[in-house]
Amino acid sequence: MRAYREEKGYSIKTMSMKSGCSEMLLKMVENGAVTHPKIAEQIKRAYRLNKKDILEIIPENHRPGPNYNPDKYKVPEKVSKYFIMDRKTEAELDLAGYYAAKKMRGAIR
């Protein structure tokens, strides 16, 4: 990737604008880091990568083959329900906090 960029005379900032990714991410990927497959597609178009090259910048569990498991790092549903609040719950908590504060000030008996 770096060779292509330097061959064309592009700066990392130019490639960042072409790919729609941050400069920091491109620096990391050029130095061997991996990224999400959707972001890798953006990078592929900007750097004109072939299929072999793009497989090197996506995580192993997203590559085709026996280790393919895109949900490997997904939080299990039985665990996530205790950590994720929806907006309605947040609004209800805000409303309860509002009435509790008014009650403490003596505005509500």
Annotation keywords:
single chain, 109 residues, 434 Repressor (Amino-terminal Domain), 7 helices, mainly alpha, 2 domains
Question: How would you describe what is shown here?
Answer:
The chain is mainly α. It has 2 domains: about 1-70, lambda repressor-like DNA-binding domains (434 Repressor (Amino-terminal Domain), Orthogonal Bundle); about 75-109. Helices cover about 60% and strands about 0% of the residues. It contains 7 helices and no strands. The model has no long low-confidence stretch (mean pLDDT about 80).
Distance between the termini: 68 Å
Low-confidence stretches: none
Give the tally of structural domains. 2
**CATH 4th-level superfamily of the largest domain:** lambda repressor-like DNA-binding domains
How is the CATH topology of the largest domain named? 434 Repressor (Amino-terminal Domain)
Query: What is the C-level CATH assignment of the largest domain?
Result: Mainly Alpha
Order of helices and strands: HHHHHHH
Number of extended strands: 0
How much of the residues is beta strand, in percent? Answer: under 5%
Any chance you could write out the topology, listing elements then pairs?
Layout: H1 2-8, H2 12-19, H3 23-30, H4 37-47, H5 51-56, H6 77-80, H7 87-105
